[in-house]
Design goal:
4% strand, calcium, repeat, Recoverin, domain 1, EF-hand-dom_pair, mainly alpha, S100 calcium binding protein P, two-stranded antiparallel ribbon
Length: 95
């Protein structure tokens, strides 16, 4: 029988599944291309786009995701996006 996962374990599994769902449509399963990142953000984080004051902010934000400047976003860089957004949201609700 499968063990029941905790909420945090489910959240981690969801992060992995979401990354894997969008990575690889361009053939490389270990990273997200710029187009894949854009699609992921549009579909999975629509509030981020709506909350941005202008589209240039979103482009700059996405460009800054690519920490090693290889024009791709790997899983570690993707997780950093989620961490930054989660901290920002947490701060907004805890004031």
């Amino acid at each position: 029988p499968a063990a029941i996962m905790s909420h945090l374990e489910m959240a981690m599994a969801t992060l992995i599944q979401t990354f894997d769902q969008y990575a690889g449509s361009d053939g490389k399963k270990s990273t997200l291309s710029k187009a894949e990142v854009k699609t992921l953000v549009e579909k999975e984080l629509p509030g981020l786009l709506k909350g941005a004051k202008n589209p240039d902010e979103v482009d700059k934000f996405l460009k800054n995701l690519d920490l090693n400047r290889d024009s791709e976003v790997d899983f570690q860089e993707f997780v950093m996006l989620i961490v930054v957004l989660t901290c920002a949201i947490h701060g907004r609700f805890c004031k």
